[in-house]
Amino acid sequence: MDFSKGILDLEVLVSKIYDPEVKKLVKEAIACYNVGAYRSAINTLWISIVYDSHKKALHLAEKYGDTSASRMIDDIRRKISNRNYIKEWEIIEDYIHQKFKLVNDVELEKIDQIRKLRNLCSHPILFQQEGVIYEPTAEEVRSAIRNAIEIFLSRPPIIGKSAIAILDREIKSPNFPNSYAEIKRFVDDKFYDVDQSFARNIGIYLIKEYLSSKDFNLSVKLMLVLKYFIERYPDEVINDKFRNLINSVDEENYVKLPALFITIPKIATLLTEATKYKLKNFLVGYKFDPSSPLNDIYWKVVFYLKFSDVFSFSKQDIQNLILKFCKYSDCNFFMENLSEEEFQKNKQVILESLSILIKNVQNFQEASDILAKLKGILKRLVSIQDIEKIFNTILENKGWYGNNQFFQSPQAESNLRFILESISPNVIRGNVEFFMNYIDKIYDNFMSDY
Fold first, then answer.
1. Over the stretch 195-214, which tens digit does the pLDDT of each residue have?
2. In terms of C-beta distances under 8 Å and separation of at least 24 residues, what long-range contacts does 98-105 make, across chains too?
């Protein structure tokens, strides 16, 4: 029988082995297989499985502080020191299977078949039948090598439920990072070697923890970790179970969804039409608490602007929200979270909202406050027509006693400088005549008040 194709398949599989030392052992087993030394191949393969079990436990103990792994390593070292017998199968069955859950019941049975093959090959006196020393077939050896690699040797040392438990402990630690860049580096270092089964379950865990968390800082960390895994494993994390969970969120937790969707816009695309309808009605009627970080009006206004087309928010709803938001904060905050495309999509309603704010300024203190709130928007304006609309509205303002409150002495010069410094230098350089004329109008406006 021609096994050349099988040999090539095994060589490809070897490249998937996680640990370089284990990979070297398996290459030795394949070398034995290639020359027909089948008993030697099985023995070397079993050595690689036992050694890999030890290395996986050592990795869990040293990198993640896993107590079960630490006990296993300590037990092995103690027995070696005392020259006691180490039962290899107990290591695999008790720790690798039961405690670490690195293999399931079916996979454990396949490893046990390799163990039995190894016993037949290594103990000819015990298992000899009719004076014939057992020799495995080429097919048995190739199948054993393939199974060992696919179900165990190619897998990282941390997967499944054990990984989620470790990640849970890390996120809830006070020393866990807060920014996305730092979280990405941290998770890359400690959890880059998780497998797809972990990725399929991590989204469910993170969403449930996020919705149940009452702690603002923890909620932010959970969102950012979820963002990392969705970017890295989009198809695995966003599975049917994840979609169903997003669309079955209790209405009492709707208030936490805007922040989640803003951080991870992809999740908003998973909503059914029924969920969109319910969430929209909830948000339109909800009275946000400006003192609560996760529930504040900031998240709501950014959410409205980012997802206005998805949820069909009315122009009046958005405008009212911007006007309300400016009572508590300034436009710079929500402008920082809008892409250029999102800004252009909502530019008209944003400019109209600002016009209302400008027209309603009653005194020079309000005028200075409003200008500070305009900076984030002025920076984004590149159309001279849009800038002209804002400038004309400022000039038309007549606050107390019919005077323009933006260019009242003594703050007229500083306000003008603030406006011009907020606009892109490229826009000013390309429209010098317009801005010179505008300054003349300000001067005329100022003189007409005195």
1. 677 778 889 999 999 999 98
2. 99/68, 99/72, 100/56, 100/57, 100/60, 100/66, 100/68, 100/69, 100/162, 101/159, 101/160, 101/161, 101/162, 102/56, 102/152, 102/155, 102/157, 102/159, 102/160, 102/162, 103/151, 103/152
